[in-house]
Design goal:
The protein has 244 residues and is mainly alpha-helical. 82% of the residues lie in helices and 0% in strands. It has one domain (4-243). It comes from Arachnia propionica.
């Protein structure tokens, strides 16, 4: 399955970005998605990435185990589940180009809306408003099911909700661990997992772990302002790539 001299470096780089994203800069996960999708068929890359993301999730929930806001997570559950179902249906019926560009448009629109809301002082509406929470939750479930790209959506939600760096990382770590576990039966039902993925995953999982260690080192050197700026830039870059 993987024999190209171009493919392996891309997969290793993507796995490293997954690890860093899980413990420092969530927006990097979408760049990892882009790397995998460049060298593998989209559905195959989705399945491999799901396993690698879960590997990073386990490290992240341990690293930020004291920071998670479980009350916020419970409120998101119904809409995220609805988004997962919609994403699975979307994945089953559309081609790769439509899937990629749809996610890109969603990310750009939400980035603009979130920045506007924060600057206008409307961030509290995202936290308490049923409509805002439903929109972010549904889109988060949808994008993570369709293309493993839910990270930016939910990070934008938590950022707009006024979470500090540590609380954001802890809450999103548990969020994506639970969501990715929930995605397993959907992905299996769509026939995305194949036996030939086992060897590449055994090679790439340690790379993810290395990335989580590097991410922790980076996180300790960031302040809130730079964290927010980097996350927003990475979200826009990811969206533009998906729109290509």
């Amino acid at each position: 399955m993987i024999d190209s001299q171009v493919v392996w470096p891309a997969l290793v780089a993507g796995a490293l970005l997954v690890g860093i994203a899980k413990t420092a800069l969530p927006g990097l996960a979408t760049l990892a998605v882009a790397l995998f999708a460049t060298v593998l068929p989209a559905r195959e890359s989705t399945a491999m990435l799901l396993v690698l993301l879960l590997t990073g999730d386990l490290v992240a929930i341990w690293a930020y185990r004291r920071e998670a806001d479980f009350r916020a997570l419970r409120r998101l559950v119904p809409t995220v589940v609805a988004g997962l179902v919609l994403g699975a249906l979307f994945l089953a019926w559309v081609d790769d180009v439509v899937m990629r560009r749809t996610i890109g448009v969603i990310l750009l629109a939400l980035t603009g809306l979130t920045v506007w809301g924060i600057r206008r002082g409307l961030d509290s509406l995202v936290v308490t408003g049923t409509g805002g929470r439903a929109a972010y939750g549904t889109l988060g479930g949808f994008t993570t099911m369709a293309a493993n790209s839910g990270g930016p959506v939910m990070v934008l939600y938590f950022m707009a909700a006024g979470f500090d760096m540590a609380r954001l990382m802890g809450t999103q770590a548990w969020f994506f661990f639970l969501v990715n576990v929930a995605k397993l039966p959907f992905s299996a039902g769509l026939g995305l997992f194949r036996a030939e993925m086992v060897v590449p995953l055994l090679v790439l999982a340690p790379v993810v772990l290395l990335g989580t260690w590097l991410g922790r080192a980076v996180f300790r050197r960031l302040n809130q302002t730079w964290f927010n700026r980097i996350v927003l830039v990475l979200t826009v870059v990811s969206a533009l790539y998906l729109l290509r």
